[in-house]
Amino acid sequence: MGILNVTPDSFSDGGEHLRRDAAVAHGLRLHGEGADLVDVGGESTRPGAERAAVAVELDRVVPVVAALAAAGARVSVDTMRAEVAAAAVAAGAVLVNDVSGGLADPEMLATVAGLGVGYVAMHWRGHSDVMARLAGYDDVVAEVVAELAARRDAALAAGIAPERLVLDPGLGFAKTAAHNWALLARLEEVSALGHPVLVGASRKRFLGELLATGAGQRPPRQRDAATAALTALLASHRIWGVRTHTVAEQRDAIAVAERLLAEREPRRGTVG
């Protein structure tokens, strides 16, 4: 899933693709590099970000979705608003990626069910301006899994087809670096909820902290090698998808992981 932020304030590439022509060009580049989905978002969810007005989000997202879909790209829309989701699907989006898991807009789950498209429900506890204060857990994995299970149940109850539902543990959203690593180490517990899992780790702060030097955190654009390393590990565990700023590098990492899996897996059936 290639990230296309049509925003002025995203943490890694804010402002770079705010102009419509620049956004479409970058989306086509991601598609050409092998993105299965180009994820178009018009509202930053970085820590501390202020919400965009719905009219602004619609203006940023819908024309870009329409242009990319017309050019043959498979497009998802990154939004917490049912109105934006419906408009984006009408413009050609095939999946709704909702970082709030339906909690930010009470109309979202029923709207997606009616649209009949795929839906990513992420673990979320609150908007960007408050989420840092909500990062309190006794057992982060158990609590995230329980809260995601509740969002799964709500999505299914609203009529979203089970085969269209994807779950995301929400790295960095109301979570510290230690929480993120714990979730990554125990992703099988998220997978045990019975649905494909999407992981969004690309260029995130916990990677910058891991790679920090005396000069401070590694800047976002210098975290791509670490992101690719994580992508390879996730692919080796058959995670459904990764959300990333750089598609070609992640494709290479996935190819390496899949080749090693192909070497190992046929031998499992021959033991004994």
Count helical runs. 10
The CATH superfamily name is Dihydropteroate synthase-like
Number of strands: 8
Q: What is the distance, rounded to the nearest whole angstrom, between the alpha carbons of the first and last residues?
A: 40 Å
Could you describe the largest sheet, including whether it forms a barrel? 6 strands, parallel
The CATH level-2 architecture is identified as: Alpha-Beta Barrel
CATH class: Alpha Beta
Q: How confident is the prediction overall: mean pLDDT? A: 93
Q: Using only CA atoms, what is the Rg?
A: 18 Å
**Strand arrangement in the largest pleated sheet:** 1-2-3-4-5-6
Beta strand %: 5-15%
Helix proportion of residues, in percent? Answer: 40-55%
H and E order: EHEHEHEHEHEHHEHHEH
CATH fold label: TIM Barrel
Structural class: alpha/beta
The shape, in one word, is: globular
Low-confidence stretches: 268-272
Tell me the number of structural domains.
Answer: 1
Give structural attributes:
disordered C terminus, 272 residues, six-stranded parallel sheet, alpha/beta
Describe this structure in words.
By secondary structure, the chain is an alpha/beta fold. The chain has one domain (2-265): Dihydropteroate synthase-like (TIM Barrel). It is built from 10 helices and 8 strands. Strands 1-2-3-4-5-6 form a 6-stranded parallel sheet, covered by helices on one side. Strands 7-8 form a two-stranded parallel ribbon. The chain is globular, with a radius of gyration of 18 Å. Mean pLDDT is 93; it is low at 268-272.
